[in-house]
Specification:
594 residues; alpha+beta; six-stranded antiparallel beta barrel; 12 helices
Length: 594
């Protein structure tokens, strides 16, 4: 009861009075806590606001979130600090901080106490004469100052005092210290917030390396120095809380290097604002697990998500990591209450320390707000076949045709389509590997990395074709732009090449480069061979002259790859529609990627 009466008396006598903001006296604050995440900071600042006046919340340059009282004149701040400490209303390690220490204000909502705000004038009761004198008040150093000059001011906190101040740390704050020790190279155990022998030894090692007495317990100032060193890598990025109300997302972003550019649902695009080629996408759309899975597939087709890197889709979330010589991209997305939200961070390769820290800041500060991005929002001028929501779709180096030769999905194609490829795909969906190749004949055998179920499988003609008989070629003439194979009809001109090559047939029909590797079918729908690419050179043949590798030559390469050729049984002529159905069913798009 005595404590409640005292608290009531303090609140009644510390009512702030407006003082001119133009006063020449210095404006300061009493910082009482700092938290590593916005969520925990909001919980604490609201708790303090129930019992104390003048409670504010500010972002710190090092990535933490401060809880402070004020603003006050220096004299009033010292009285508040002394009085509240004695009454146990604030932690003993609270201190006076300058306005320059703070960044964007997050509490109270819509307040801006750093821009001309009124200074609170206080009236504090006289203190009992028996009261112990308050310790000297020291202004907290900035992260860069403590990192560069860890001992510019004496550290007078005893080991017992350090242990008491340490006991007030939350589990999240303890984990943050372990993370900083790990980053500094002194700690290699679990980040669990439990200060056991391993953590104590790492603290002592860090203290010794930084010129402190290796007690194994960090003082308040030493903790600030350690965190300052850890956060120094973020300086110059201007990490600030960004509230995107249209997307329903609040997150901490490096505002010195990225700035909002436009909405292209489901993305809010924050593109490079300077020389550093960094980008951020905030992802926001309505949907369910099917929508989430669709987004997961679509994003992997974008150039901003390189092919090399781990990725996973599980339940209501997915992650995508892509790396190449130029960028590192990381996407994290979750589904909750019918809303899909997340972000993509794209950062230049070779700057891993800063990238990982920015990613951590974004993860720790990410807050979902109600509402999603309006599907009709943003620009529509960039609607192109090679763009998705204004972002460039990854395109293969080369695409050619191929055809299935067994029920598991093995494919015959032209060797020109698979040379120097970092990745080979079938229909741009299924990864395939090279199983056999004969560059002299211009043929390659591919096997999918997963078992497929082809709509149709090539059946090779059991009898020699007749000269001048009708033939057809199935192929992706336009290299996949149409999404399905085309059929081209012509005639068989000769059973050998122009120089008498026995494993080559000469055809009379006009094809396009994308048709190369496709099956050549006879009037019964059986496969006669594989269309070869047009030979480029000084001697230009008539436009309708094409060549095909014969079934016998294909069979010999297939045997080397552990496959066997299947013969057809059809001998009767089929209608063009039936030949088209058979040819399209067995033909597949083969793509070569960097």
């Amino acid at each position: 009861m005595k404590r409640l009466v005292l608290l009531f008396w303090v609140l009644c006598n510390l009512v702030p009075q407006a003082v001119s903001a133009q006063t020449a006296r210095e404006v300061v604050w009493v910082q009482i806590e700092a938290r590593p995440t916005l969520e925990t900071a909001l919980e604490r600042v609201k708790s303090y606001a129930v019992t104390l006046p003048d409670v504010n919340g500010f972002a710190l340059s090092g990535g933490w979130y401060a809880i402070a009282l004020g603003p006050y004149t220096p004299e009033d701040a010292q009285q508040v600090l002394r009085s509240y400490r004695v009454q146990g209303l604030i932690p003993n390690d609270s201190y006076i901080a300058l306005s320059a220490t703070y960044g964007q204000q997050y509490f109270p909502p819509d307040a801006d106490g750093l821009d001309g705000g009124a200074v609170a004038a206080i009236q504090t009761p006289s203190e009992p004469e028996s009261q112990a004198p308050a310790p000297d008040v020291q202004t907290a150093p900035t992260a860069s100052e403590t990192a560069a000059h860890p001992q510019t001011e004496p550290d007078t906190e005893t080991r017992a005092q350090a242990q008491r101040s340490e006991s007030l740390l939350s589990r999240a704050e303890k984990r943050a210290l372990q993370t900083a020790l790990q980053w500094a190279g002194f700690y290699n155990a679990a980040i669990d917030g439990a200060f056991g022998r391993g953590t104590r030894n790492s603290m002592a090692a860090w203290q010794g390396a930084n010129g402190y007495d290796p007690t194994g317990v960090l003082t308040t100032r030493q903790r600030a120095v350690l965190i300052g060193q850890y956060n120094a890598v973020l300086e110059g990025l201007d990490m600030q809380i960004v509230q995107d109300f249209d997307a329903g997302i609040e997150v901490r972003l490096p505002t010195a290097v990225v700035a909002f550019e436009r909405y292209e649902p489901p993305f809010a695009q924050y593109n490079a604002a300077g020389d550093l080629a960094a980008r951020v996408l905030l992802i926001s759309q309505p949907g369910d697990r099917t929508t989430l899975a669709g987004l997961y597939e679509v994003m992997q087709t974008l150039t901003i998500v390189p092919l090399d890197g781990p990725r996973s889709l599980s339940g209501d979330s997915f992650t995508l990591v892509g790396r190449n010589a130029e960028i590192v991209s990381e996407t994290q997305v979750t589904l909750a209450s019918g809303e899909i939200k997340g972000f993509t961070l794209i950062w230049p390769a070779g700057d891993e320390e800063r990238r990982s820290r920015v990613l951590q800041e974004m993860q720790n500060s990410f807050v979902r707000r109600s509402g999603v991005l309006d599907p009709g929002a943003g620009e529509t001028a960039d609607q192109q076949i090679d763009l998705v929501a204004g972002l460039e779709v990854r395109k293969p180096i080369l695409s050619r045709s191929g055809f299935f030769v067994d029920a598991a999905g093995a494919v015959v194609t032209t060797s020109d389509a698979v040379q120097s490829c970092a990745r080979i795909t079938l229909d741009e969906r299924y990864d395939a590997m090279l199983s056999g190749v004969d560059t002299d004949r211009g043929i390659a055998i591919l096997k999918p990395k997963q078992t497929l179920a082809p709509p149709a499988v090539a059946r090779f003609s059991p009898v020699p074709p007749r000269l001048q008989s009708e033939i057809a070629v199935a192929g992706y003439s336009f290299e996949g732009q149409l999404g399905a194979p085309s059929m081209t009809f012509g005639t068989l001109s000769d059973l050998k090449g122009l120089r008498g090559e026995p494993d080559v047939s000469r055809l009379a029909l006009e094809t396009l480069p994308g048709d190369a590797g496709g099956p050549v079918l006879d009037r019964s729908g059986n496969v006669l061979g594989m269309l070869l690419p047009r030979v480029e050179g000084t001697r230009q043949l008539p436009e309708e002259v094409r060549f095909a590798l014969t079934g016998e030559a294909i069979s010999s390469v297939m045997v080397q790859a552990g496959l066997s050729l299947s013969e057809g049984v059809e001998t009767a002529s089929l209608d063009p529609e039936d030949i088209t159905d058979r040819g399209i069913g067995m033909t597949v798009l083969v793509s070569c990627w960097e």
